[in-house]
Write a structure and sequence with these properties.
Helices cover 17% and strands 24% of the residues. The chain has 157 residues and is an alpha+beta fold.
Length: 157
């Protein structure tokens, strides 16, 4: 399950593909806020999805490296750090369950290898950066329905 604007190649080259959580984790995503790696994902050999948001999770460490607090940041400089080298997050938007794209140029959502607590297992954990200077990591603003299609950013093993 990947989504893109097939009729608009400019969009494809600018924003790349979008994948639901099951595809991004190759069906192996962790059931909780874990720091464990998945058994598989769609990243190339030698690369993988970042781990979840618990205190030892890679998304937390990466956000702190970008100048954030590892939870929710409302600071343009922090969001701008995510948009520049070395991370270069693209504000590629997402696709909803009805296959419509939204928020291109305004929001970037990236899957992690983890999902929310088992009671809300339909939610995948995400890194969310937007053009308004926000970066979300520690609230419901950074979970997304697993059927929605988002970007994938792989990190080196």
């Amino acid at each position: 399950a990947s989504f893109n604007d097939e009729s608009n190649m400019t969009s494809w080259y600018a924003y790349g593909g979008h994948y639901n959580w099951y595809t991004a984790t190759a069906g192996h995503g962790e059931p909780t806020l874990s720091t464990a790696q998945t058994d598989g994902d769609i990243c190339p050999l030698g690369w993988r999805l970042p781990t979840g948001r618990s205190s030892g999770g890679e998304t937390v460490a990466l956000d702190k490296l970008m100048g954030g607090n590892g939870e929710n940041n409302h600071d343009y400089d922090i969001a701008n750090n995510w948009l520049s080298a070395p991370t270069n997050v693209v504000l590629a938007g997402s696709y909803s369950s009805n296959e419509t794209g939204s928020d291109r140029g305004y929001q970037g959502k990236i899957w992690t290898s983890s999902s929310k607590e088992p009671t809300s297992g339909e939610q995948g954990l995400t890194i969310v950066i937007n053009a308004f200077g926000d970066a979300y990591f520690g609230s419901n603003a950074s979970t997304t329905n697993k059927w929605y299609a988002l970007s994938v950013r792989c990190i080196a093993n």
